[in-house]
Design brief:
Shape: globular
Distance between the termini: 26 Å
Largest sheet: none
Helix content: over 70%
Length: 253
C-alpha cells in the first residue's frame, strides 16, 4: 500500500472539515448537548433510574452513538459524492492509487472526524451528567468499529446517490429513525413483548446496547452478540465496496 498517497488524500479530506469548523464540529456537538440539557438535566430529573442508572447517564451512550452514526454517514457520503459531482474523482481513479488506497483515504478521514466528535461529545456530557466507564477498551473498540462501518456505508451511499436529494435520503429516512427506535432513549425491556421482538430486527439496537454495556455493564442483548453484529455489518460493507470497484458501478462514465 502506498502510504504517502493515502496520507495525502486523508489530509485533504481532514482539511476540508477544518475549513468548515462551525458546520463540521460545532453544530453536531451543540445539537447533541441540547439533548443532554433537555433529556438529561431537565426531563431526566423527573424519571426514575433505568437498570440502576440515572436516566441522564443512561442516555449518554445512546446520544454518542446517534451522533457517531449520523456523522459517519454524512462525512463519508459527501466526501466521495462531491468529487463525483465535480468530476475530479476521475483524477483520483486514474492516479497510481489502488482502489483500496482510495477507500482508506476517504473512509479513514470520515471515521476520524466522527471519532473526534464522539470524544468531544463524551467530554461535553460530563458537564451535564455524571457517568462511569466500566470497560474503556471495549468502549473504544465499539467506537472504532462503528465509525468504520458507518463511514463505509456513507461511502456506498455517496457513490449510489446521483443528486443531493438522494444523498440525504438514507440518513434522514433510515439511519436517524432506526437510531431513535434503537434504544437511544430507553431500554427495550420497557417495551411490550411484541415491540421488544420487533425491535430486535433493528440493527442499531445491537450497536447502542453493546456501547452502553461498555459504560455500565448493562445491556439489552449480549455484548458478544453486539460485537458479532458490528463485525457482520463491517464485513458486509467491505464486500459491497469491493463489488462497487470490481464492477465500476457509478464510477465509470
Amino acid at each position: 500500500m502506498n502510504l504517502e498517497s493515502v496520507k495525502t488524500l486523508y489530509l485533504a479530506e481532514m482539511a476540508r472539515s477544518l475549513r468548515t469548523v462551525l458546520q463540521s464540529i460545532v453544530s453536531p456537538v451543540l445539537s447533541t448537548s441540547l439533548y443532554f440539557v433537555v433529556f438529561g438535566a431537565a426531563i431526566g430529573t423527573r424519571i426514575s433510574e433505568v437498570d440502576g442508572v440515572s436516566y441522564g447517564a443512561f442516555i449518554v451512550p445512546g446520544l454518542i452513538m446517534l451522533m457517531l452514526l449520523t456523522q459517519s454517514v454524512s462525512n463519508a457520503s459527501f466526501g466521495i459524492f462531491f468529487p463525483r459531482f465535480s468530476g475530479t474523482i476521475y483524477e483520483v481513479l486514474s492516479s497510481p492509487m489502488s482502489y483500496w488506497e482510495v477507500v482508506v483515504g476517504y473512509v479513514g478521514a470520515a471515521a476520524s472526524k466522527s471519532l473526534l466528535l464522539g470524544l468531544i461529545v463524551l467530554a461535553t456530557a460530563r458537564l451535564f451528567v455524571p457517568y462511569s466507564i466500566e470497560h474503556p477498551l471495549m468502549m473504544v473498540l465499539f467506537l472504532v468499529l462503528t465509525a468504520a462501518t458507518f463511514s463505509l456505508l456513507g461511502f456506498i451511499i455517496g457513490i449510489w446517490a446521483d443528486g443531493f436529494e438522494k444523498l440525504q435520503l438514507v440518513p434522514l429516512l433510515v439511519i436517524t429513525p432506526l437510531t431513535f427506535l434503537g434504544g437511544t432513549f430507553y431500554s427495550i425491556d420497557m417495551l411490550p413483548p411484541f415491540w421488544q421482538a420487533l425491535t430486535l430486527a433493528n440493527p442499531v439496537v445491537y450497536l447502542v446496547s453493546g456501547f452502553r454495556w461498555s459504560f455500565y455493564g448493562i445491556s439489552d442483548v449480549s455484548p458478544l452478540l453486539s460485537l458479532a453484529m458490528i463485525l457482520l455489518f463491517l464485513g458486509t460493507a467491505i464486500a459491497l465496496v469491493a463489488w462497487i470497484f470490481r464492477t465500476g458501478y457509478r464510477l465509470k462514465p
